[in-house]
Input
Amino acid sequence: MKKLIFLLVICPTLWAQDAPKKAGERHEFVISNFHTESGVTLPVARIVYGTYGHLNAAKDNVVLLPSHYMADYHGYEWLIGPGHALDTSPLFLVATEMFGNGHSSSPSNTPEPYHGPRFPVTTIRDNVEAVHRLLTEELKITHVRAIIGFSMGAQQAFQWAVSYPTFADRIVATAGTAKTYPHGFVRLEGQIAALTADAAFKDGDYTSQPTKGMEAFATVWTAWLFSQEWWRKELWRETEKPGTTFDQMLHEFRTNFIPGADANDLILQARTWERHDVGGTAGFGGDAERALRSIKVPFLYMPSETDLYFPIGDARYEAAFIPGVSLVPIPSLWGHTAGAGGSPADEKFLNEKIGHFLAAGQ
Output
């Protein structure tokens, strides 16, 4: 059951949860007086990140992997290693963690006056700007071979393509869009409403986690995670011990959602997701289509055919505006999770397509 539960945040692939985490070194980058788009300046902003492989002397073997919802830097290990798209023998991988995940600066770990519900809503652009400073100031990296992002990581990949159009040679976005459209906003608001309806939430100033609200949040989240056909065919039976019932599985999803997570952190990253729009980048006047037309490098766009978070129709709409795009849908019943190798077939498909795309740029 732990394998399926872990898919709620889509860290390493469903099928590899019993394996030890791959070697990666944890680091932390600190920014003083970080200005957010909300107008709040954080006196200290921390970005946690992991590295895999070795940076060469020319500093031209780098791939950036921006994290997704509540994930840590291990979240792309389904792509890493011999026989995968990202072999660390020649490559240096930088996997960053977003504001609000509980490790990088978050509502749960920031002192007053910005603790808990007073932490500013950080945007995808805020995260990109912080990571740009990490790369250029800390690691002295001014160019990367590729940026690869899943879900909220894909949102960051789009933002990099617009904010820094020549920083990467190639960009890959799986199961994520360049803008959060109204339907996605409403979904996220429903999840937040389920959490905050718990009286124990106390407007974010709780003294212990609002357990009932977090269980309600997890239940709503679970309904959107996989495709309807995945549920009808009971595909969880492919990963769990024989005889696992629907009731048992739902109970685990409801009660073991992101163990150790903080309620304000969950809300903060959902608000970050809601506000994503590349059209809001300076110079584009709120026009997402114009921002997409500005993308200059080859772009591999891989929506899941059955994603309920980021519907394939939204991806087809956006792809029409991106010069040099390769739109390659993931043929899967695993919904949003397909974009992170949710099944062995998904993992194989992603590694093959992304590997070929990166090789074409060498």
